[in-house]
Amino acid sequence: MVKELFDSIAERYDLTNRLISLGLDRLWRRKACEEVLKSLEVRERPLKILDVACGTGDMMLCMRKRLEKRNLSGEFYGLDCSEGMLRIARRKVPFAKLSVGTAEEMPYPDGSFDIVSVAFGLRNFFDREKAINELHRVLKPGGRLVILEFSKSPSLLGRMAWLYTRTVVPIIGKLTTGNGKAYEHLVSSIDAFPSPEELRGEFERRGFRAKSLRWLFPRIAFILVLERL
Known about the structure:
It contains ten helices and seven strands. Strands 3-2-1-4-5-7-6 form a seven-stranded mixed β-sheet, sandwiched between helices. Strand 4 (113-119), helix 6 and strand 5 form a beta-alpha-beta unit. Helix 2 packs antiparallel against helix 8 (169-177), helix 3 (24-38) packs across helix 4 (58-69) and helix 8 (169-177) packs antiparallel against helix 9 (180-192). 42% of the residues are buried. It is of the alpha/beta class.
């Protein structure tokens, strides 16, 4: 279902993201990249970086720019279940090695990556426990996992952002992509998703240590950075 959903909106996905987030999705990705990189020691060798549920490649573009600002380089890999999304990613991130696949069964050897990112994809994993185990497996010991995801905040600002998300976002999504169900799924998946603190606990019970957790304006998205033990 998730594969078909994202295949159906791939061509208008980037535009819709800009519109429904009022352009904030770019800022959120940049903050996530900066947060994970500042937790790593500076290294001269190229970092091996995997973006899971990579979509059209925005996170890899952002990470590459952040690395260049630090005079670092990276070898990039992207994984997504949607061939439609990857078709666009191949144009946007020709420097990356892209594969069709799922987080629950990743086609990479143990301990392959210095950094793994998941931006707005964790909610869509079919088996989150299995995916977490796979994320742990493909990271090197001491490697970093950065999660950028939506959640509901009990703060006043968070409640206002959630009201906008569940009422306005499906309308914009339907107008721009023609698939209102895709953005109704977005709302329902956020509604059913654990809090950032609960999610941190899930990862810590499976071989990770939290390095940082922070909400992003307007408290509808958060960044969680974890270290693979």
